[in-house]
Amino acid sequence: MERLRPFDPSKIGGHRLAGRLGAGGMGVVYLARSPHGAWCALKVVRAEHADDPGFRARFRRETELAARLSGRWTVPVVAADAEARSPWLATAYVPGPSLAEAIARHGVWPEDQLRSLGAALAEALEDVHAAGLVHRDVKPSNVLLTADGPRLIDFGIARAVGATALTADGSVVGSPGYLSPEQARGRTVGPASDVFSLGCVLAHAATGRAVFGAGGAAGVLYRTVHEEPDLEGVPAALREIVRRCLAKDPGERPAVAELRSGFGGFEAAGWLPEGLPALIAAQATRVVDLPVPEPTVVGGEPAVPSPTRRRLLTTGAVLGVGATAAGAWWFRSRGAPVRPGTGDRPAYAVGLLGDRTDGAFTAQERGARLAVDEHNRDVRREFDLALRTAADGGTAEGSARAAAALAGARDLAVVVCAGTNATVPTAVQACTRARITALVVRADSSLLDSANLTTALLLRPTRSAGPPAILRHLNRVVRPVRTVVVHDLTDAAETVPSVRIVTVYGKLDGATAVEEVASDEGFAAVAGRVAEHPRDAVMFAGVRPERAAAFARALREAGHRGARVAEERVLGGRFLAEAEGWLVGTAYADADADPRTRAFAAAHRERHGHSPAPWAAEAYDAVRFAAHGLVNAGADGPSALRSELLRTPWQGITRRFSYDPGGQFYDADRDGGAFLYRISDGAARFVARADDIGAGG
């Protein structure tokens, strides 16, 4: 347990906080005393989760269901507030260690203790399912140990937050290594999914290792879906029932009632392996006689602000925004602009946000200015446009500040986010809080998967949708019997979604295999294994040009001759020099080479004296798309812009913009916006739009 930090509240919902039990992307967990003096674990959800429409209703529903849990092996919700600025819930505090900690410190569990553990957890799941819940995150760290038996924790909140993050592309909610194949694929899950997770937990307790291996999340998910579990070391008498729990088909798994019968009754006497009773007793004594903490945040009740929220609250001081401007940012109407345009026409400002030292931002600024000028030359126009740029310095903090500064202008209609994965997520959050429409042009982080549920719209697919041009080329042109995905774990968090969409979700028609390479490893060994099957296609899943170049060189030296593909971020000098013949998928067009963008390229050359660089045409489309929405919004202006963009599809020069009315997601398979390039003579040369690959057979 950690001490409270200066910005932590002293009280939440009448509960006095004593310390921090943990923190993560979802929020903070505190040790707290209830108004009645009982210890509890109080979980506070970060405010940005609550900004999603429908979150509070889901949160309220799930916590109400969790409060009904009454079984002896579950820890129900005892209090909650779905209407707080940062919603929170409290459960009874269990002072024992987790099963994960117990295994790490004292080793594997013998057969008799495994039976008692399995019997208790099966009974806990029976209680959960009877309450109308599916846990969705049964894992060793969510099983706490006490002298009289285990306790299954984390109900309600995981599912509510998970429903926020779950997207049309099938993003996974849960913990790789313990989630079911159907959960790994992003499909609907039921009680059988929890049974699969229970099987993983018992196998881990019996062997001390994860049943589908270690390594990167994408590799673990792939093995979960496609390979058999490693049950070596599971006691023979329990191996068959654990194997049945781990069946790929949910219909072949035993029901929890059958599991209870198979494990037998829970034996309280001696249910814990040797050494654990002392560990439990030691942890329990830590809570006794804890001193009352000194007050932290004055007032006691405010929920913990997220780092993004705190940055936004200080933005006014940093930028010198006074009270009047700040009030305009938070409370002004986004209707008709305040600055008149030419004659009787109103004027709207388009904000462009990015890093001025980044060549892609310069390209986008030039494309955006061409669109603004073209709009303003139209004598039939209903309003004028102006382009206003802001520099983010290439940092997340700078992006939040710059977005807030742009939003302070009352004539601003839209922000075009021209930055990178490192900066755009915070810009989107700032625009959401300012209630201004944000259009994301270049960034493709999976952190943006739920951006379309705020005030933002993605104008390209994220990594979670996979590389469309690459997939179409492999499926329609190469048609390999097998594709080997070489996953560079140097930047695993950025590449896992793409690997998952290719392998776990079966987006390739042929077979797939995953080879993982750690950040401190070279590529000679994996290149040698790949070259043993010279007709296999190879997809490099990594983002660093120097790592991609090293793999390309190793693959060439090993003599591999099959198709080789990668994603756009590997494009750099070293890779271009080593990767002759490789194909790379991007989300930006070659305006000179693509017939549908040549008129734009000609206008760009006339204006700037050279051909447009990557992302210029996409920014041009973004501004024109925004203007299209403002025309349809009419007198409602920017306040109705996003709803109009969602409602009315529009064809640009690079892609068609339309959104699913339910999930509001951009669909690259339907609307295009993906392009294929071939590396030839040290340069990336345009091949085709993804839509045109393999057309006509």
Automatic annotation (TrEMBL):
Q: Where is the Protein kinase domain?
A: 15-272
**Is Transmembrane given among the entry's keywords?**
no
Which keywords fit this entry according to its UniProt record?
ATP-binding, Kinase, Nucleotide-binding, Transferase
What molecular function terms (GO) are annotated for this protein? kinase activity
Question: Which residues bind ATP per the record?
Answer: 43
Task: Give a single Pfam family match.
Answer: Pkinase
Give the matching InterPro entries.
Answer: Kinase-like_dom_sf (IPR011009), Peripla_BP_I (IPR028082), Prot_kinase_dom (IPR000719), Protein_kinase_ATP_BS (IPR017441), Ser/Thr_kinase_AS (IPR008271)
Q: What is this protein called?
A: Bifunctional serine/threonine-protein kinase/ABC transporter substrate-binding protein
